[in-house]
Amino acid sequence: MQTLPKQQRFETLSYLPPLSDQQIAKQIQYILDKGYIPAVEFNENSDPTVFFWTLWKLPLFGARGTDEVLSEVRACRSEYSNCYVRVVGFDNIKQCQVLSFIVHKPR
């Protein structure tokens, strides 16, 4: 067993190489399958002490497929390429965010 090199980690899946759009789509499908509401957020820094991210548009309440959500991810990445972008899933029963993962890191 080997220890990972010391570096800043970001939320869920951060130990993996950057996700492709196809891999992001699979994670989004999981969100939709669970009945969670997907949303896209961005922020200039992802420091763990920063609890507030800016919401990209409104949560995608009526999203039926991954293409709708992935389209918003691409638009946010394009407009805010200097920011971290993440996808979050909200549980409307528990009324809280139940998962999130980074889909873009600025270079």
TrEMBL record:
<comment type="subunit">
    <text>Heterohexadecamer of 8 large and 8 small subunits.</text>
</comment>
<protein>
    <recommendedName>
        <fullName>Ribulose bisphosphate carboxylase small subunit</fullName>
    </recommendedName>
</protein>
<dbReference type="InterPro" id="IPR024681">
    <property type="entry name" value="RuBisCO_ssu"/>
</dbReference>
<dbReference type="InterPro" id="IPR000894">
    <property type="entry name" value="RuBisCO_ssu_dom"/>
</dbReference>
<dbReference type="InterPro" id="IPR036385">
    <property type="entry name" value="RuBisCO_ssu_sf"/>
</dbReference>
<dbReference type="GO" id="GO:0031470">
    <property type="term" value="C:carboxysome"/>
</dbReference>
<dbReference type="GO" id="GO:0019253">
    <property type="term" value="P:reductive pentose-phosphate cycle"/>
</dbReference>
<keyword id="KW-1282">Carboxysome</keyword>
<dbReference type="GO" id="GO:0016984">
    <property type="term" value="F:ribulose-bisphosphate carboxylase activity"/>
</dbReference>
<keyword id="KW-0113">Calvin cycle</keyword>
<keyword id="KW-0601">Photorespiration</keyword>
<dbReference type="GO" id="GO:0009853">
    <property type="term" value="P:photorespiration"/>
</dbReference>
<feature type="domain" description="Ribulose bisphosphate carboxylase small subunit">
    <location>
        <begin position="9"/>
        <end position="106"/>
    </location>
</feature>
<keyword id="KW-0602">Photosynthesis</keyword>
<comment type="similarity">
    <text>Belongs to the RuBisCO small chain family.</text>
</comment>
<keyword id="KW-0120">Carbon dioxide fixation</keyword>
<keyword id="KW-1283">Bacterial microcompartment</keyword>
<dbReference type="Pfam" id="PF00101">
    <property type="entry name" value="RuBisCO_small"/>
</dbReference>
<comment type="function">
    <text>RuBisCO catalyzes two reactions: the carboxylation of D-ribulose 1,5-bisphosphate, the primary event in carbon dioxide fixation, as well as the oxidative fragmentation of the pentose substrate in the photorespiration process. Both reactions occur simultaneously and in competition at the same active site. Although the small subunit is not catalytic it is essential for maximal activity.</text>
</comment>
